[in-house]
Amino acid sequence: MKPSWTQLAVAALAGLLAFGLAACGGGSAEPTAAAPSGDAAHGATLFAGTCASCHGPDAKGIAGLGKDLTTSTWVAERTDTELVDFIKTGRPSSDPLNTTGVDMPPRGGNPALTDADLVDIVAYIRSIHVK
Ligand code: HEC
Question: Which residues in the chain come in under a pLDDT of 70?
Fold first, then answer.
């Protein structure tokens, strides 16, 4: 005798339920990272493409263009989040906090940089900073 439509439906539902339970319950319990940390190697590539034109290929600054980021105490005193926020907005020469009279453009003048890119760039800046 052929199975009825209801029997097939019940079997299908049971199968779905079992699959769903396996998918939910069987997940691995990998520890989540304590804090989001950027990819410094990727940040170095992005820095070379956008920031090096003013801050120099090694971030040691170019006179009249961009400051040395490797020895900046201002950089050292900021959190990663604060640095990302700073790079997003920059520091125009009209800003009273500007120290050189030269514009630091938002996102280094490259709007294509995503927030995740900026996190990677900050990781790179941390990696080359000397105390
Ligand atoms: C067009 C030139 C230019 C580009 C491109 C540029 N900057 Fe700057 N940046 C500056 C200038 C000028 C200052 C200093 C502003 C001032 O006088 O306070 C500065 C300041 C900074 C500071 C603060 C340093 C301090 O000690 O106060 C950080 C951090 C920084 N830039 C990061 C970056 C990053 C990251 C990029 C690339 C995404 C970038 N900059 C691209 C010109 C530039």
Answer: 1-3, 5-36
